[in-house]
Structure formats: C-alpha cells, structure tokens
TrEMBL record:
<protein>
    <submittedName>
        <fullName>OsmC family protein</fullName>
    </submittedName>
</protein>
<dbReference type="Pfam" id="PF02566">
    <property type="entry name" value="OsmC"/>
</dbReference>
<dbReference type="InterPro" id="IPR015946">
    <property type="entry name" value="KH_dom-like_a/b"/>
</dbReference>
<dbReference type="InterPro" id="IPR003718">
    <property type="entry name" value="OsmC/Ohr_fam"/>
</dbReference>
<dbReference type="InterPro" id="IPR036102">
    <property type="entry name" value="OsmC/Ohrsf"/>
</dbReference>
Amino acid sequence: MDARVTWNDGVSFVATSGTGHRVTMDGPPDHGGRDLGPRPMELILMGMGGCTSYDVLTILKKSRQDVTACEAVLKAERADAVPAVFTKIHVHFVVTGRGLKEAQVKRAVELSAEKYCSASIMLQAGGVEITHGYEIVEAA
C-alpha cells in the first residue's frame, strides 16, 4: 500500500492513494487554509469509521442478516496539548434491516473491535480509548 501527498498552496494538500483516488486536505482560514477539504486528523477518524463499518457489514452479511443500511457515528476527543492526539473515540453503529438478531449485531461489533479492524486496533495500541455502541432499526 502506498500514497503520495502533494502540497498545493497555503496549508492545502492533495493525497493520492496507490489505487489513484484523491482527497484534498486543507486547514481552516485562521490557519492559512481555505477550508477546501477535511483535516488530516479527520481523515484518520473517517478511515477508522470506514474500516470498522466494512467489518461489521461483512460479518453481518456472512451471518445472513438482512441489512439494508449501516451507519457509524464517531465522536472523538483529542489531547489539549501538542501533539493533539486522539485520547478517546466512541463509535455508535445504527444498523437497519429486516429481522436483525441483536446477538449477531453485538458479535459483529465485538469482532471488528477486537480482531478485524486494523485501524481501531492500531489506535488502541497507541493509547486511544475506543468504545462501541449500537442500535438496531427495523426496516420499513
């Protein structure tokens, strides 16, 4: 896996993944940016959310759960001092489907957190406290 980050101007950068996808990162106007894209730390949080969502959805599909939607809502806290690392992250899953079994949803969230989500496990190893919750919504 590889990536390239190229400076545009001010505090704006374009990150290009090895697969050719691009993301513009920028800072707020009071730090020389034009607010054209997410901050790098936001990308880390979004990446973790994508990683764990992928796991949960894949596990639920393999266990033949009829999932129609899955959303992960992430709330993070950062240290007040430099470096302003993440100290806590809470991930709350809203899983929508037909006849979903709570035990299966709970187990999918646990497996992602404890075994499969590389991003979560890496952040936890760095001292970030990560907690999880979920709710199940019956599809119309």
